[in-house]
Amino acid sequence: MPDWKDKVRCSFCHKKSSDVSKVIAGPGVHICDECINLCNEILEGERLAASTEPRLPMWESMSEEQILDHLPKIAAVQAQVDDNLRDWVAHLRTRDVSWERIGASLGMTRQSAWERFRSET
Q: Are residues 34 and 19 in the same domain?
């Protein structure tokens, strides 16, 4: 089984945790110190600019090719979040938490939760 450090990637730049100094975990997502630094630079730049111009969604400033190139990164983050959610559900099952409670927590039926998260082993 791979080490968790091999699985953890930044949800923003998709770098492996071994390729950066620090990765901070959130609920199903991770952010590396390099992306945090970039975020801080962006926020500081916006504070300095103090622009009142309306902000467009990110894709409005991107070409179709740039958007298409970005889609695999979004899909990779989704896969990472799905894997993380599966791990959390598996842990709840080791505590004998019912499929009904898990489903209710996720806004789905017991049957839907069981079908999505049951162990194939």
A: yes
The span from the CA of 48 to the CA of 103, in Å, is 46
Q: In terms of domains, do 79 and 106 share one?
A: yes
Tokens of 101: 């409670």
Which residue range(s) make up the domain with 80?
A: 61-121
Look up the pTM and report it.
0.60
Cite the annotated binding site for Zn(2+) by residue number: 10, 13, 32, 35
Q: Could you give the 3-state DSSP secondary structure of residue 32?
A: strand
- 99 and 85 inside one domain: yes
Q: Are residues 65 and 51 in the same domain?
A: no
Give the chain's domain count. Answer: 2
Please name the residue ranges forming H helices in the chain: 4-7, 33-49, 64-94, 99-106, 110-117
Q: What token pair was written down for 113?
A: 């939760």
Q: Which residues are annotated as a binding site?
A: 10, 13, 32, 35
Per-residue pLDDT of 39-79, as tens digits, reads: 998 888 877 776 556 555 688 888 999 899 889 988 988 98
